[in-house]
């Protein structure tokens, strides 16, 4: 069986796809068939990098109205995006778990800032605004509590 490489892919797409998307698909396929390459870094290094990225995504909006939340992402067109209530909510639990597992109280402090921001957005009917939390956006029901 031939190896999978970008020079001789086993998968050809019947529709236009970006080079980045094609490479990502091939990496997933390699992993699924057991032919993935070993990572250049260990799991702890990857975890530390992910936590630092999420921390940066919180820090970059500290001077904005969404201070405390986590940026929805970054784009070449707009740079750092506003805070996103939905994804910030997911990150809260991640930071609390990571703080306990890694003995990193700074992550608990970050999670508390996220919680404060989330609660500042909550509407009287207990729903949260959708999209980036801006006024007038579609509401999201609160189906579970933060704690």
Average predicted local confidence, pLDDT: 78
Structural class: mainly alpha
Low-confidence stretches: 1-8, 141-147
Side-by-side strand order of the widest sheet = 1-2
- The proportion of residues in beta strands is 5-15%
Q: How many independent structural domains?
A: 2
How is the biggest beta sheet arranged? 2 strands, antiparallel
Task: Bin the helical content.
Answer: 40-55%
Q: How many H/I helices?
A: 4
Strand tally = 4
One letter per element, helices H and strands E, the order comes to: HHEEHHEE
Describe the protein in words:
The protein is mainly alpha-helical and 147 residues long. It folds into two domains: 37 residues; 98 residues, no CATH class. The strands form two sheets. The protein has a two-stranded antiparallel sheet. A hairpin with a 3-residue loop joins strand 1 and strand 2. Helix 3 runs antiparallel to helix 4.
